[in-house]
Amino acid sequence: MNPKLTRRRFIKGVIFSGAAASTGASFYLANAQSGQNTAERLINLNVNGRTRPVDVMPSETLAHTLRYKLDLTGTKLGCNRGECGACTVHIDGVPNYACSVLTQNVRDREVTTIEGIKAADGTLHAVQQAFIAENAPQCGFCTPGQVMSAVALLRDNPRPTRDEAIQAMSGNLCRCGAYEHYLNGVMRASGQLV
Amino acid sequence: MTMHIGKDFLPPDVPGKVTGEIKYAEDHKREGMVFARILTSPLPSGRVVNIDASEALRMDGVIGIFTADDLPPVPPPGNPALASEYVTFVGQPILAVAAVTEEIAETAISRIRVDFERRDFVVDPLVSLTPGGPNPYPEGNVLVRTREEGPEGTPIVGAEIRDIKWPQSAVDAIREGREPVGGEFTQEWAFGDIDAGFAEAAHIIEEPFVTMGYPHHSLEARTCMAYWENGKCYFAGSSQSQSANDNGLARMLNIDAGDLVFINEATGGGFGSKIGPYPYMAITGNFARMLNRPVQTRITREQEFYIGSARSGMQGWIKVGVKADGKVSAVDLVIVNDGGATGGGSGNSSAQHVTIAYQPESMRYRGISVYTNTTPRGAQRGPGQNEMASVLAPITDKVARTLDMDRIDFRKLNAADSDGFQGGSRGPLTSAFIRQALEQGERMFSWQDKSSQPKRNGNKVRGLGVGIGYHGAGSRGYDGLVRIAPDGKLHIHSGVGNLGTYSYAATSRAAAEALQMPWENCEIHRGRTDNFLPHSSGQGGSNTMFTHGRANWVAAEDAIAKLKEIAAADLGGTPDDYEIGGERVFLSSDPDQGMTYAEAAQRAIALGGRFSGMEYPDDINPITQRAVQGLQGTGLVGVAKDNIPGQGQPPGNVVGFCEIELDLDTGKYEILDYGAVADCGTVVHPKNFDNAMRGGAVWGVGLTGLERHVYDPQNGLPANVGLHQSKPPTYKDVPLETQAQGVNIPDPQSPIGARGIGEPTQGAAAAALASAISDALDGHLFNTAPTTTDMIINHLAGNTYSSKTLKTNTF
Question: What class has domain B313-474+648-803?
């Protein structure tokens, strides 16, 4: 039997989600060519309160893992080089660019993505509700990242000044230029704009 | 009293954007999907001599390679998906490799050896026009249209490349700010007697100007995913438009449009760069067919810079003659466009802006669009008009100063009104209320109060600016399609794309308004071809509000006519005896006599024929015909082509007002206040109007102050491919408490009174900011867009390095 095929079947068995299965096998194939140790790549990842086993290459970014292994496509890749903030997630509650974090480095950490922001019963977070009320998104591609930065801000500083909010949100680029509406959304979510 | 128009509502896709659940092209996956990556040119100009992919193809996990040989040839001046022999810009795609992972595909790309011959390159149009100057293409350096230019975003057809050189004296003249006498042009028009116009002018102002191209940098790169099933291609692509892609993309895939399902639920920005199908779509769709597997081609941010298109640049000269009473009597305008690797420029649109702003009694425009070995150029938010607005505003201020006339009064006197015209053909306008917008804005912005405040405070100096933005904002002749289901619900089928303006939703409100239907009983169908979508315009050129407000209105009117016919047939009388309201059609003389929409829809199904879409008008587009066929027998179908009478261009006009504080020690400025008033007819969706106005203002700040291509003239390499270096404005670059209002006078040729507003929002802000910078510096004219901090500090230091000789594409 082809040993690679055997290993691929094994990987298929542990990868989370059917959608990611073929992709996961492919990643094994990629790494098999480099001859790297595969055992260390099977890590447990705590995402949105669930611990999931994932096959992760040493150089793999968290954004890649989230989007292509865990099918959490709400995390967007705008630049993949730490310039736009579309991929912002929380790591232990702190906003980070998922494109600039190695997945291997977030073992044993709590990762929260846009999919984990609304309540278990489906109720949207106050920031999400406020962004809807302000009609803040235009194209919407940066919106998940804007939500993540705003949620982190309000957790640390529930009633920020407008300048503090600008500072906290300034790592999130919006090419449509909807900044004022996002900012108003932050102020609305903090109860300072009704 | 309207039911929907002018009232806020929630576009149905907004919640999916704040939860991350809405799907963009890159979010689509398919079992067995493989990943393609592209190999791009490292050279600005060269010839591909040999490609050796043998090592890459031997790699485990590599599925296949796709080159220009796998596509029909595209002779110059077409923009091929993949280069065949010649490469003409850094980043030009040469081939694609598919593999089971992106990493393997990228590794395979790195193992492909491409041998090139270098060719001379050029990044400055005037260098190419110089005698003996390099030609970007072997065939020459200038795009010459042999047929009239199509709408924005459509492929170049009827064009050729020619080799044109100017006398050295003409190149020297325009670089020095004089008329380039002896220079050859490829586009020229004139009206009136400009010699007489200048002869009767009390003052004549002559100025050179330069504007730089810059990338769209839509935040979603143009990733595509395609798969084939039962002879149909399912294609998830990033596009501003929906139905407008069908025919062009089907041609790229060599299939009937009926065999294409284009999927486009949401798009991460386009700004003109994704109006129609772009060449690179051909790679993914054809590669998927070749491999018989789903293929996703993901484009990196760097590659989006290369192939995502850019605004064209201008090097120009303008001469304005003005009479003692303040009326502009003559304009002479010359524009050399930097067309990048695709050659097209926007000079004619720039000249069009001048006609709206000045309504000159006579004018001549001469233009030429020159290729350079830089990224492809295409429509970008107000192409031509907005960069012209930026450079024209300070020049306009200078003209007013020369007359000792108030800047706003000068604009009120000269700008177009409803009896005015646009462009070289002096075509009519549907309506225009720029003067009213200026008056409203003056009050809103407290212009007089701000003007009376002290200008200087230590090393800080205040500047006030005003500007006009304009873009044609509407089209005609597209189709609308609605359906009343047997449960009485209104289904609005929209072929409009979702580029973030929510125009698909706002124009759907026109149908709901006509049918007096509560919004909660309406459902919009859109986002993929197999949702039965009618023929639509491309979502470019600020046209959708006017165009599809009309199209949805006529579809609803067709439904209303059928409701009345059914009621008359069942209840007696003639259709004219009936009216609608409360989701019923009823006898005007006895409102109790009638039937509900649900009952009428059930009768429509029973009657068949044109009532249920079994038959349809002859004049609707084949795309709409297919959509109607898919809905046959499911309800009362309203379908019609927009044949509403009327003529003239519906303009989108915005006036902007800006106050800045400029630091004389650093050259940096802060925008203290910004406000704008739109003349876009009826404001249909106030909340979204606000967002459009403010988003456009952010783009205006970028155009006038920040964004530009930087190409190294020695090596032809782009120096700012990333977002940080390209410098689209951030939270910290723009004012975040601004004002936006509308004149709110309905356009007579729109049933809902609306014209578009997407593009002039930028032009107005760009113009007002440029005007404010000039005002802060005692009327100094930089005549550049952008006017960056380094240019300002160089000016303050008496150094002309960064603002002379019309340098483009570079520092």
Answer: alpha beta
Q: What percent of chain B has pLDDT over 90?
A: 95
Q: Which fold has domain A126-189?
A: DNA polymerase; domain 1 (1.10.150)
DSSP conformation class of A69: I
Q: Rounded to whole angstroms, how far apart are CA atoms B136 and B239?
A: 29
Q: How far is B103 from chain A (nearest CA, A)?
A: 7
- Contacts from B442-445 at CB under 8 Å and sequence distance 24+? B442/B408, B442/B657, B444/B657, B444/B675, B444/B677, B444/B739, B444/B741, B445/B657, B445/B659, B445/B673, B445/B675, B445/B739
For residue B314, CA distances in Å to B174, B367, B383, B809 come to 12, 10, 11, 10
pLDDT band at B792 (very low <50, low <70, confident <90, very high): very high
* Rounded alpha-carbon distances, angstroms, from residue B365 to B332, B641, B766: 6, 36, 23
Binary contact (B499, A183; C-beta < 8 A):
no
Domain residues of chain B, as ranges?
313-474+648-803
Residue written as tokens 């895939």?
B253
Cβ atoms within 10 Å, residue B606: 11
What's the fold here for domain A3-115?
Ubiquitin-like (UB roll) (3.10.20)
Domain ranges within chain A, ordered by starting residue: 3-115, 126-189
Which residue in B74, B70, B73 sits closest to B53, CA to CA? B70
**pTM across the whole model:** 0.94
Of B8, B219, B271, the CB nearest to A142: B219
Nearest to B17 among A137, A170, A173 (CB): A137
Reported confidence tier of residue B800, pLDDT bands at 50, 70, 90:
confident
Q: Summarize pLDDT for B395-414 with one digit per residue, the tens.
A: 999 999 999 999 999 999 99
Distance of CA A16 to the CA centre of its chain: 16
| CA–CA distances in Å: residue A191 to residues A133, A143, A160, A188 | 13, 20, 10, 5
A173 touches chain B (CB under 8 A): yes
Note which residues in 55-114 of chain A have CB less than 8 A from chain B: 57, 71, 73-81, 83-84, 86, 113-114
Q: Are B241 and B538 in contact (CB under 8 A)?
A: yes
